[in-house]
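[09:14] KT: can someone run the structure on this one? pasting the chain below
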Amino acid sequence: MNSFGIIDLVMFLGISQGIFLAITLSVVHNKNRSANKILSFILFIATIMLVGRVFHPRFSGIFFFRVAAFVDTLIFVFGPLIYTYVRRLTFNESPEYKNHCGHFIPALLHLAFFSWTLTYSAEEMKNMINNGEFNLIYFIVETLGLLSNLFYTIKSYRLVSFYKREEKNNLSYTQKVKAYLTVFLFGVSIFMILWVISYSNVYFMRIRELSFISYNLIWISIPIFIYIVGFFSLRQPEIFRLPKYAKKKNTKRRRLEGAELTKLKKALEQLIVEEKVYLNNSLTLKDLSEKLNTSTNNISWLLNNIHKCSFYDYINKYRVKEFIEKIQNGEHHRHTLLALSLDSGFNSKSTFNKAFKAEMNDTPTNYISNLNTA
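[09:31] RB: done, structure tokens below
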């Protein structure tokens, strides 16, 4: 039996953290619950893989070989679940998104093959392993597992990129989910990069200097991934998920013309100038469409084609104007800039600074300083 080392300690900590998070996230209410159910399952899978990695080297025999072979099926499940989690966290779909059963065919084939090996006796299996008859199977399984996870990691990145583009067309504020997903996918990417290097070196390059990038390093990346999730997920607030995810079609949106266009422009101007709806720091495109009694597509067309800007930029332009009016009235002498920005409709300091810089090509502090010296 192998001795207990620092790598095992890291993995045991990952196991305990994974169990804690998997249970905690599954019982947290009203905080991205649909997505967190998938995340709990992902953490449960990662925990099982860590348990197998800790105990498998310490035992020998065909029984543990067979158990490990079945556990390896999880590598074909990890990728589809990662994509499902990202999609549920960012987009609001009814019914909630679920991967088609076809995504799990590699996992089913893996289970079917190793179920078939149960027809061999322990002695027959031992001889087959010693004779290298499973080497090709190992290569095929790892290759397919690697390609599968790379495929779903890339799909997840593309989905986040699509979300970032659409967020500005649907929300008047920014959310922390982008930073969270960037870190989350970065953790997955580290695991994938280590796996690619190890795979290439074992089967093709055989560079001795790269031997340190081995299974040990790859398995250490799993608890690190768990720690990343643990640090961010429990603090992640309920987010506004964008409307149902759908790929962009090449067809153009219906063009607004004549009386319909004039009426919508006037109604929008009234909401902005007279009612100051932009002071609502959680204003969304859907909220605005309901107030104007029209579709979100019509408002998007009006903003994109007439005002030449996104919903995010349009609303924050008026918030910046509101802030400047407060400065010109001397309110910054009685209140902090953050308080004035929140009163102007912004929901965070970072959103305010970014919008002010984009609109005025200057920072709020420099603007006020130049105003005082003028």
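[09:33] KT: thanks! The two ends are 79 Å apart (CA to CA).
[09:34] RB: yep, looked fine to me
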